[in-house]
Give the backbone structure.
Amino acid sequence: MDTQAMATASISSYAQIQLLQRQAASLLLYQSVLHSDVGNAFLELLQAIRYTDADARGCLHAYGNYFHALANRQHNWEDYLINQIFTAENPFSQLAQQRDFEDLPLALVAAAKHDLQILQSLYECNSAILSEWVQAVAHLPVSPVVWYVEPEDIDTVGLKFSLPHLDNWADAVEDLANYYRQSGTGLFAQYRALRWQGGELIGIPYPDPVKLSTLVGYELQREALLKNTEILLSGEVALHVLLYGSRGAGKSSLVKALLNEYCDRHLRLVEVTKSDLRDLPRIVEQLRGVPQKFIIFVDDLSFEEDDDAFKALKVVLEGNLTARPQNVVVYATSNRRHLIREFFTDRPNPKDQEEINAWDTMQEKLSFSDRFGLTLTFEPADQQTYLKIVNHLASQTDINIDQQDLEYQALQWATRHNGRSGRTARQFIDFFQAELKLFPAENNINNIQS
């Protein structure tokens, strides 16, 4: 590009950048689209191009930051912007989750149309154009490297249009509202598994991939849990569930597998630790009124006496003056049938002078697990069940060994390690499969010492 052409390009880019900056500043609802590392880098690059210093180092540095932000996310600018629109949380997207489009305030719809037109202009200012502008204002012999990856498949479940290909994005406002109504916004649209941490919900990018097809044994308990989950997904009132039983029986895996079975039906799993149960009423209120269905998952549940978490969970299980949201249930696992620890000293003595209704207090502790509408009991695995699990897991791998030999070695493993359970079976198969690959000549797990 010669000097005159570069000067002309600089004047043209200056006017376009000035317009883009004004448009970005005038967003009414979708400001959050640009409030991120990529969005901030984009705006800072526009500013740097517009006010390039003598040696253009600030402009080049801003372009480097923009390139780095896109590369870090593995997104093109266009993909980033579309994803941000689909997951944005603002008054329009949040109200669209709860109302039909016809019932949305006209001013809110008009503001959404206004913002969509602006976002379309920002979308069209792609990385190739920005690179050319940087080349022009910095007087570079070649344009900087343009970040580009193959466009991803945008998750448009329930979306009846392809936003990038529309001539006028404002025409898509009703379809966008319907998308929010079906798929939700924010974290709930981005993640299928979340955890409560530090007083807020955090998305889990890589949830446990365990599937129902890998779980065997305890069929009656599994069918009962599946049926209750189907009721939740249908919009009817589902029961809170306590999965009680021996360690390693697969209680937690069964709950996690529900997510992989039903995530395409907008099921979400929210993990809450026992130490955070006091926040449970607050968590439930955040889940109320959104289109997804939620299982609040509490693993290894038990309480000490006078535990505040006990009172918080009791409120959620039994309710208070606030109506219970029908899209939320609690699934808890425990190795204890009586969830609150009880001591012999807790038992009332007629001579005690401390509490008149001591028996009532004790019964409240013992009956807390009854507040779950459904209790599923997982008995310790007998030898037949354990070997059934081993054979099922082995059938899903490339282990090629005589069944009798496999079962013998599985029983030896259980004796040397953690006893018969689904967890022990999984550990045995994982180790045995790795051993066969790495040490095929030895091929005898009995030589492994505990």
